[in-house]
Fold this sequence. Notes:
Elements: E1 5-12, H1 16-27, E2 32-34, E3 37-41, E4 47-51, E5 65-69, H2 73-82, E6 86-93, E7 99-104, E8 110-115
Parallel strand pairs: 1-4, 5-8
Antiparallel strand pairs: 1-5, 2-3, 3-4, 6-7, 7-8
Amino acid sequence: MRVKGIxxxxxxxxxxxxxxxxxxxxxxxPHTDEDAFAVWDLENGDRLEVFGPDGDAPPYVEAPxxxxxxxxxxxxxxxxxxxxxxxxxxVHAYGDGNEWSHFRAPDGHVYEVTNRxxxxxxx
Length: 123
């Protein structure tokens, strides 16, 4: 497994409206903006997602979660499991080729391995 970059960051916050209004100053206007969820696609292909307390973020998102871009999520998962990572749920996939799988690292925090075929590092 070779990590190509940290290409996704997701966070859940009880102060969603304030964060939704703050992040355009940092990242530009949101690509998606719903009542409890906002997404910013950054110029380099990375993605920032903010969830409100009632958003669709999984309950284990207690701190910001970083997503590591890999070529093969299933293979990366198997390798990390051999090194003691505890995976949370299955490999998730969208029909467009995006895949991800969350794991708890030794520090107790949650991270993910992800494959985004449209990311510039994958071209």
